[in-house]
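To fix ideas, we quote verbatim a fold written out as tokens:
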Amino acid sequence: MKKWFNFGYTLVFLLIFSSICLFYSDDFTRALSSRPPLFPTNQPFGIEKCQKWTEQVRDFSLFREKAAEKVTVLMYHRILEEGEIDPSIHYDKHGQLYDTIVLKSAFEEQMQFLHDHDYTTLTVKEFLLFMQGKIEVPRKSVLLTFDDGFKDNFIEAYPIMKKYQFTAANFLVTGFVSKREDKFSSSKHQYFSLSDVGKSCDVFDFQSHTYNFHQRNKQGTAYLESKAPDEIRDDLSVSLTNLSGRNRSIAYPYGAYNQNTIDVVKELGFELAFTVEYNDARPGMALYEIPRKAVYPDDTLHDFKEKINFY
């Protein structure tokens, strides 16, 4: 009798424990991994309404001598408060801030400079039409872009840009977006939550940075170069599902691509693709190889002025 009692007790315990594990499996997964589970492949972010502004095109009514012949596309990744910098996370092996980090104080100084000197931040659609030679834009025009979708873009950059009424393209690794606030992630691996995306979609034009192909293989080659076209197509298609088909532009992770990549991007209807080649963008350039100028942590305001051709 005792034997059967112990057996029954153990069985009940296992059933209860299994139920608890199943109910809290998402939390356990988050707690035991450095990155939360990927965003569902079949679920849109639900931001269609708040992204309608990205389809608008302004009438700049320019005199020809004031029209731009080229536009600087600026590339940012992370914007961090100086007090949040952790040498064990944010410094490279040489003891320098990673190139992908810009201090909040420097970013605010740069945005204030653009504002005080009457720069226009273009939307991706306006930039596309400029590159196609269909519209003229002011000589003092820039396109601001952010890669990866780190949470600090929402916490630090978004309020500054909103203050100056600026907009930017934000290229999300859509699989990294968390469905809820992620209390388990460290700042090293913290990305936009779905709530963050919804709250900042009046400033950020959310575009694709792949679904989960911001990776390299064992040989160090980026997935967009090393994977088969069908695999690239599948990954990018999922990112477009998350973005409700928003396929105006894509930024290649690491700036890595080849002709297979371009062919898939074209097939999926993307109109623009951004690289990390350091140059200004001019009408007539290849639309799937648009250059961008990265902003670095050690850039002075003088460096920034040179990037945007202020001199």
Summary: Residues 80 and 103 are 5 Å apart (CA to CA).
